[in-house]
Amino acid sequence: MQVTEEDGGRLNAFAKEPRMQVMELGERSDSNSKLLLIGGAVLVLLMVGVAVGIS
């Protein structure tokens, strides 16, 4: 962790961030992320359906 000292002697800690990955045009991301996106959309639709059914 990177620690800096602010005015007044307070310490401020910053977490190390992972390196960014640049994707080329047309390059696909992992299929797991697509599956996670579809699963999240289905979950939201189910929650809306339950909310409509309750009301």
Work out the helix count: 1
Order of helices and strands: EEH
Q: What about the largest sheet?
A: 2 strands, antiparallel
- What Rg is obtained from the alpha carbons, in whole angstroms? 21 Å
Fraction of residues in helix: 40-55%
**Spatial order of strands in the largest sheet:** 1-2
Helix vs. strand class = alpha+beta
- Average pLDDT over all residues: 86
Percentage of residues in DSSP E strands: 5-15%
Distance between the termini: 49 Å
Uncertain runs are none
- Principal-axis shape equals flat
Q: How many strands in all? A: 2
What does the model show?
By secondary structure, the protein is of the alpha+beta class. It has a domain at 30-55. 44% of the residues lie in helices and 15% in strands. It contains one helix and two strands; from the N terminus they run E-E-H. It has one helix spanning 31-54; strands spanning 2-5, 11-14. Strands 1-2 form a two-stranded antiparallel sheet. A hairpin with a 5-residue loop joins strand 1 (2-5) and strand 2. It is flat and about 55 Å long.
Give the arrangement of secondary structure elements.
Blueprint: E1 2-5, E2 11-14, H1 31-54
Antiparallel strand pairs: 1-2
Give a brief outline of the structure.
With 55 residues, the chain is of the alpha+beta class. The protein contains one helix and two strands; from the N terminus they run ββα. It has a domain at 30-55.
Quick tags:
55 residues, alpha+beta
